[in-house]
Amino acid sequence: MVIMSVVLAGCSRMNAPAENYSDATVMMEAPPSVAKAARSSETSATQNAPSTPAGLMIAYDYVDTIWAPSGRIKALMDAHQKACATAGPAACQVIASSRSGADGGVTTAVLSLRASPAWIAKLRGGLDTDAKAAGGRVTDSQVTSEDLTRSIVDGEARLRAQTALRDRLQKLLAERPGKLAELLEVERELARVQGEIDSAQSTLAVMKTRVATSALTLRYESGAVTRPTGAWAPLAQAFADVGAILARSLAGLVLVIAWAAPWVLVFGLLIWALRKRLPRLGRKPPKTPE
User: Fold this and answer.
1) Per the confidence metrics, is the pTM higher than 0.70?
2) CA triple 219-141-42, angle to 5 deg
């Protein structure tokens, strides 16, 4: 009964609504890195970094697409990756990078970074200049956000309740010796609660990292540029497609010749053999002299 009362008391606290905590409590419990990130985003608003309203914990994700000539993509991607490495892991970390294709053909590359809002704002502010220097341009920019305020506040409330329950179970295990079965039950409950605490701490750490830093995905591509627009766009596009149409036509002709050539040779030899061995139709035999 003692064990059940302790567990039920802990569960009642874990199920308490997070709305009981005031905005002041939310702000006091926000980690210093979150507050610093919010201040950084406000000071760099002129560099396309959205400002975060006071008291909110918002995670931002950025995606920028850069078109550049195939031979320039590797150097451009390496320059951005080097800038991240130079800033150090406290300001920027490379999450993933990949590149496919060869110089002279269609090349695509992706660079995923996680960095401080101020560093991302600085890098994104210079993307147009970097792209133009490589003979390309920024073709698309996207920003998405997710409000994690309620998730973090609720998670911290549940974590406090679970921590209090763990402390009571530890005290009960140390001060109230009883039967072996009761001790084993307390230890099992303590292990379960500790596992939930570890999981909650890990989840909170991930969410707070998403708030304190932002994700930036840079996509590089050397495919076809945007089709022309305007009244003469169809005619301009038709001239642009002439080379591709001729190439496809020649490719189809080569395939037809490659498919038909062996059969033409076989049938030609067969006809030649038949004409050689069989008498020609309608030819009269030569007359014998009288």
Assistant:
1) no
2) 120
